[in-house]
Design brief:
Length: 211
Amino acid sequence: MPKLLLQDRTVVVTGAVRGLGAAIAKACAHHGATVILTDLLADEVAATAESLGANASAQVHDVADPASWQQLETHLRATIGRPDALVNNAGIVRGASLAEATLADLRRTLDVNVGGTFLGIKTYLQLHEECGAASPGSIVNIASVRGLIGGARSVTHSASKFGVRGFDKGGSGRTRASRHPRQRNLSRADRERHEHRQPTIRDDGLGFLCP
Ligand SMILES: NC(=O)c1ccc[n+]([C@@H]2O[C@H](COP(=O)([O-])OP(=O)(O)OC[C@H]3O[C@@H](n4cnc5c(N)ncnc54)[C@H](O)[C@@H]3O)[C@@H](O)[C@H]2O)c1
């Protein structure tokens, strides 16, 4: 496995008990990062962090709840300051067509997937402003192919993931686009595809990537 530049870095991963979040947390720990796993599932997040060794710790955290982000922010400020990276991974899928989906489904999905990402970015920026850091920071927002081409059986999820990509495309203000010089020769469709893969880098070095 190629070595990642994570030795001695600090990484916060939301929704880190199951699926992709657990795999990201494990990979970061494997490559030498200090990892803070967060999740709604209190017992499981503690057990998952413990299984990753001494450089992993757990925080019970609901990404849809601003008060829960406040608590995490307070914890981070008192311990590591601004983490080197935040992975906004926690997300939910309600599999339903437009005919089946309810307004409650939509609201909950937007609260977790879009609201959770938004609050994560805001928290990170707050810590970045306050604590600064010698190294550039990174925010990775986990979207989905459903945020690119939609999905007839998961319309609320698709709507939320198009929303998540909007944060990356809009950056956080004060951004400069990270463009490849040859991009000028690309068709609009190719350029959009290319931009999809490019991080948006702020003037102060914070990177936004929405894979
Ligand atoms: N699995 C896929 O094929 C796939 C494909 C594209 C995108 N994604 C995205 O990747 C991310 C992870 O997906 P997954 O399939 O691993 O999901 P999963 O359901 O396996 O795991 C999600 C994790 O997030 C946690 N979680 C849920 N709501 C939360 C909340 N409000 N606050 C904190 N934690 C919460 C859950 O407890 C769980 O540990 C999601 O954003 C999803 O949309 C997944």
